[in-house]
Amino acid sequence: MYADRITRIAPSQTIAITTLAQELKAQGRDILSFSAGEPDFDTPPCVKEAAKAAIDAGFSKYTAVKGIPELLQAIAQKFQKESGLHYTADEVMVSNGAKQCLFNAFQALINPGDEAIIPAPYWVSYPELVTYSGGKNVFLPTDAATEFKITPEQLQQALTPKTKMLVLTTPSNPTGMIYTKAELQALAEVLKNTKVWVLSDEIYEKLVYEGSMCSFGALEGQLERTITINGLSKALSMTGWRVGYLATKDKALLKHMLALQSHSTSNINSIAQKASLAALQGCADQDIENMRLAFKERRDMAYAGLNEIKGLSTLKPQGAFYLWIKIPGQNSMEFCQKLLAEQGVALVPGIAFGVEGFVRMSYACSLEQIKAGLERLKKFMA
Ligand SMILES: Cc1ncc(COP(=O)(O)O)c(C=O)c1O
After folding, report:
1. From CA 238, how far away is CA 223, in angstroms rounded?
2. Does residue 231's CB lie within 6 angstroms of at least one atom of ligand 1?
3. What does the pLDDT look like over 172-210, one tens digit per residue?
4. Does residue 241 carry a pLDDT above 90?
5. Ligand 1 midpoint to CA 122 (Å)
6. How far is the CA of 203 from the centre of ligand 1 (A)?
7. Which domains does the chain have, with CATH numbers?
8. Where would I find the Aminotransferase class I/classII large domain in this sequence (predicted)?
9. Is the CB of 230 under 6 A from ligand 1?
10. Which of 260, 323, 365, 366 has the most C-beta neighbours closer than 10 Å?
11. Ligand 1 centroid to residue 268 C-alpha, Å
12. How large is the C-alpha radius of gyration of the chain?
């Protein structure tokens, strides 16, 4: 009765635990949630001012589907200056969050039967988007020994004539790990002489606490195969504004993605574009740095506290705002449900990210909440 492609995709597995947390909260229970994938800060004041000015100026009409020219220009400049990515403004498009960028890219590239290589644990939406496109997910399991990063050998073994793309997330959600330049170069070496695309999701680029962020497309000879995806949601605490952007050197591919977007959502909200322009021109750079420092402090507290709890362990994440925690046993959903019922603490089960025996804790919340959450976790484990 319904379209095959729509019945192939499943709602996020994180919903079950989030719904349960909301229900308990509504019943008056004292719930500490560490499940959110968004910063708890307000959007920087200068960005809000730019949005207000756009409203007052009557900037409320359709814009070009890809975004206003000055925003595309600012994004291209950002890529050049901060990431060493040599894109021009006509190789960029703006979409409703990084999520729509990903949707556009998967839809434009994946044919039925095409294989997408996805390192696991993965961010929840990738496999569903591949499935929706009719493609096949090829998961590459990772573990703590390689800081949850894939190795060149794994990539080599996974390649088949049907491999269409490799999805890379650095810094990673859910592990917080960052690929070094050398690690990316080793992966690029494996892809040499192949036509495999790399979808580089760099949405957590600004949230780096150790080491440095390297964009796959900045590696020598890799820009042509790379679709770079980024956005304002995480770095600027603008999740609700829905601003993401992507860039590709392949103008025909960009045209296809724009055609798709022109028939679905058209341009993103015009006001948000003006606000984003102000942000990308640097008005909120100090706010971004302040938030990064706050996240670092929270990470340090959460990381140290967790490793003191018997039965739990975690690596020190270098970026993003998540801890990927090893739990006893292999039933992460049951662990999270019990923890929520007994201690009122909401974490996300690892199975939502394709891996059992782990849970994800977001530290995008206050130090007080982290402290209280750690105490409850300790009681739970005891
Ligand atoms: C790795 C990753 N990519 C993309 C997104 C989507 O971001 P946006 O809010 O810009 O759609 C998220 C959000 O959680 C994410 O964690």
Report:
1. 28
2. yes
3. 999 999 999 999 999 999 999 999 999 999 999 999 999
4. yes
5. 12
6. 6
7. 4-43+285-381 (3.90.1150.10), 45-280 (3.40.640.10)
8. 30-377
9. no
10. 323
11. 16
12. 21
Distance (angstroms) between ligand 1 centre and the Cα of 182 equals 25
123 lines ligand 1 (CB under 6 A): yes
Cβ 37 under 6 angstroms from ligand 1? yes
